[in-house]
Amino acid sequence: MASDSGQVVTRFAPSPTGFLHIGGARTALFNWLYARHHGGKALLRIEDTDRKRSTPEAIDAILDGLAWLGLDWDEDVVFQSERGARHVEVAEQLLAAGHAYKCYATTEELEKMRAAQRAAKQPLRYDGRWRDRDPADAPAGAPYVIRLKTPEDGETAIDDQVQGRVTVRNAELDDYILLRADGTPTYMLAVVVDDHDMGVTHVIRGDDHLNNAFRQLPIYHAMGWAEPTYAHIPLIHGSDGAKLSKRHGALGAETYRDEFGVLPEALFNYLLRLGWGHGDREEIDRDEAIALFDLDGVGKSPSRFDLKKLQNLNGHYIRTADDARLARLVAERIDLPTDEGLLTDAMPVLKTRARDLDELAEGAAFLFKTRPLALTEKAASLLEGDARAILHQISARLRAENNWTIEALEATTKSLAEELELGLGKLAQPMRAALTGTTTSPGIFDVLVLLGREEALARLDAQAAPASER
């Protein structure tokens, strides 16, 4: 189904009660990709009618997370809280047309009804006690809600683009509330009115909303509106198959950016592959995703979130990322004065094995340390015994080297190792400790070149000197 213009229109409609959850980010992505693939429109609606739980901070976090992922929207953001009058208008139209009715049941009456249903082990649903009663039977001035008069006979079927044909007996649906006693609309009414008014043709959302579709369709039918095409996506589970929780990675998009050092294109690619597939392809960039994505690639089974897979994919995108961009991102994560030019020069060496920006920052930190370098416990152990004497010889030999390149420095160091009848590692290990203060780093000759002749020799000399002189 498409809009009157034949155009596909999708929407992402988060509730701003927290961060952009990883599941919500995937739903946003699928909506955005489907619209882009079909040349349609992707819209954003903030469902902020719960004024107590919705916060400006949460709205900002959602908008920020979506923008970071590179998801843009085709019209101004719609705020559901600003559309209350329209929701009430539709409820009153339904009431006037006989598709809804006033219910004067008190809280105490409804609780007795539910207690009886529990005792009889029946489903808890409104029993329609005011469905056919005359409102004149109610006490004067008594508060009331407006309920939808749902069909009682037959069944409702949905040809879901992911789940296939799903059917529910109408007797299982109850006459739910459209307007509360205080005149405010319920979610079930607001979402239908907003989807219709925004011209939404395809409702793509988690399959936890599948039951809602059967409850929402009677409003479309009663108003004579064209119903949307539904696609209910299986939820994301943890790597152990259990419901996704924080321990599995059910965190906000900003957490993956700020705390895990994930690049947006990596999370974009990972979320794309989380429940959707195209053959055996794992690495799919943004343009390819738009070209390939369609709902027939969405699986019917829950997908499993795997942080290690995300980290491995992130490593791929780090290796292919622009060096200057990486340098800017890494500079923000190093708690030392940095030189982005030097970081940019170092990136081709640093990014070969890094899986995230934190590993990049950790690997680059040695470039900006000041002498005397603080040594890790393991690094200090590499400078015990005759290691400092060896460092002294290394420094003297390298000082005589006029060609400060990887090839020349490697040849000189190997020559010295042969003279000393030692393996190259016996020289490289104390060199790494002296030059970086750690036991892990890029290749030792890369380190020498990145530090530069003067700084590299100064660091070697500092550790080669007797303890009384350091």
From TrEMBL:
Q: Mainly localized where? A: cytoplasm
Per the record, the domain of life is Bacteria
What GO CC annotations are associated with the protein?
A: cytosol
Q: Where is this motif: 'KMSKS' region?
A: 243-247
- Protein keywords: Aminoacyl-tRNA synthetase, ATP-binding, Cytoplasm, Ligase, Nucleotide-binding, Protein biosynthesis
What GO MF terms are annotated?
A: ATP binding; glutamate-tRNA ligase activity; tRNA binding; zinc ion binding
Quote the subcellular location field of this record: Cytoplasm
- Tell me, what does this protein do in biology? Catalyzes the attachment of glutamate to tRNA(Glu) in a two-step reaction: glutamate is first activated by ATP to form Glu-AMP and then transferred to the acceptor end of tRNA(Glu).
- PANTHER family in the record, alphabetically? GLUTAMATE--TRNA LIGASE, GLUTAMATE--TRNA LIGASE, MITOCHONDRIAL-RELATED
Under which name does UniProt file this protein? Answer: Glutamate--tRNA ligase
Higher taxonomy: Bacteria, Pseudomonadati, Pseudomonadota, Alphaproteobacteria, Sphingomonadales
Q: Which gene encodes it?
A: gltX
